[in-house]
Amino acid sequence: MRTTAASAVVLILSFFSISLITEDFQVFTKEQARRLNVSRIKPMLPATRMLDQRGNLRSLHSWVIEEKKLMIVDFIYTRCNTVCLSLGNEFQQLQELIRSRNMQERVTLLSITFDPLHDTPKKLADYASRLKADENIWRFATVKDTNDLDGLLQFFMVTVINDEFGGYQHNAALLGVRPDGRLHSIADSGSGRHQEILDLWLKASFPSDY
């Protein structure tokens, strides 16, 4: 009888412990935690100084505010031959979707490198050219000060790990930033749901139009 009662107590305590750890069972992985945190808080972008592929200097936060567009962000490095190629292909598809729907005045794409020592504005411009990026839709940027990179990666919750071959392992996702400068959504890369994602994020960015 005592054993049964003790087991019941352990089960109840375990239930509440798991509930606390997983935020009422809503979080079971680090990635899920990241997305839940963003959807709840919608953090404001930092004023990190960025250089685009033309060498123009601008604050990331001001960039979004001034353009008043939905910005879809990904993180890449130009020497990558795996995940970044897939992200590049995905942004090419998004670029065509934006162009075909004449959404250039409402949506912009931004690829940020996490390899600033190698990926200079010139390297980014060459990379953009290879991907046939339309500068009116899709741009590339690097941090002005390498000391700001860790803080930027932490804000977007991007994990980057040096591999043994001079490259990086990193997580990949599409990051939605509203025109008011707030990160509001994270979507899986490679899902093929570009139109659905774009429609959802446009509604979140311009609610009065829907």
Overview of this protein structure:
The structure is a single chain. The protein has 7 helices and 9 strands; from the N terminus they run ααββαβαβαβαββββα. The chain folds into 2 domains: 26 residues; 168 residues, Glutaredoxin (3-Layer(aba) Sandwich), CATH 3.40.30.10. By secondary structure, the protein is of the alpha+beta class. About 12% of the residues have low confidence. The longest helix is centred in the first third of the chain and has 20 residues. The strands form 2 sheets. It has a 7-stranded mixed beta sheet with strand order 2-1-5-4-3-8-9. A two-stranded antiparallel ribbon has the order 6-7.
Briefly note the structural class of the backbone. Answer: alpha+beta
N/C terminus separation: 61 Å
Which shape, going by the Cα principal axes? globular
CATH topology of the largest domain: Glutaredoxin
Low-confidence stretches: 4-28
CATH superfamily of the largest domain: Glutaredoxin
- The secondary-structure element order is HHEEHEHEHEHEEEEH
Helix content: 40-55%
How is the main sheet built?
7 strands, mixed
